[in-house]
TrEMBL record:
DNA fragmentation factor 45kDa middle domain ranges (all copies): 2-118
UniProt keyword annotations, A-Z: Coiled coil
Region (Disordered): 64-87
Gene (UniProt): Dffa
InterPro entries for the chain: DFF-C, DNA_fragmentation_mid_dom
Keyword Coiled coil set for record: yes
Taxonomy, superkingdom: Eukaryota
Coiled coil: 8-42
Protein name, per record: DFFA factor
């Protein structure tokens, strides 16, 4: 990271190399950093996916219970939706709200769970919490949705690679 941030001319002078070679070096280093970030995000998405599978299993087991329990949960959901104005402040942490306000591309700074929380928020409540208009909040949610979709595609690609790898190992 330090080598990427150093001015090209200074680094070229220090390493006794041409600025073109230094540019290639800095580009390569940036690609390595980008790849590491993508790998980190992929691992994070895989963890989120596994957690979602566990949650899905617990939901399926609740469905097998008598019908009285789902009705109670429905009542709770119905009463909870009446307070949409406070949902943005109660669901999204101050840290997430600060990132949404201050970062030029906040969807890249948030982890996948925070992206999902932003997507679940009502656009009007999100706009109110951020002090923005509803159109800008909707655009932010769209950007978060696209980033989350990209991350999920990475997880699917990882699963595909792993299954391909397993198939090759069994054939060997």
């Amino acid at each position: 990271k330090v080598l990427i941030d150093v001015p090209r001319s200074d680094l070229a002078e220090e390493l006794v190399q041409s600025e073109t070679k230094i540019q290639v070096l800095q580009d390569t280093l940036q690609q390595v950093l980008d790849r590491r970030e993508e790998e980190r995000q992929s691992r994070q998405l895989l963890e989120l996916y596994l957690e979602a599978l566990k949650t899905e299993d617990s939901i399926l087991s609740k469905v097998a219970e008598p019908e009285a329990a789902p009705r109670k949960e429905m009542d709770v959901v119905d009463t909870g939706t009446s307070s949409t104005d406070t949902s943005a402040t109660t669901v999204l942490s101050d840290q997430v709200l600060a990132a949404l306000k201050e970062k030029p591309a906040p969807e890249l700074c948030l982890d996948s769970q925070d992206l999902e929380l932003v997507l679940k928020e009502d656009a009007a409540a999100l706009a109110s919490a951020l002090g923005w208009d509803q159109q800008k909040a909707g655009a932010l949610q769209e950007a978060c949705d696209q980033e989350l979709s990209k991350r999920l595609q990475q997880v699917q690609a990882l699963h595909s690679l792993r299954s391909t790898s397993k198939c090759k190992k069994t054939l060997s």
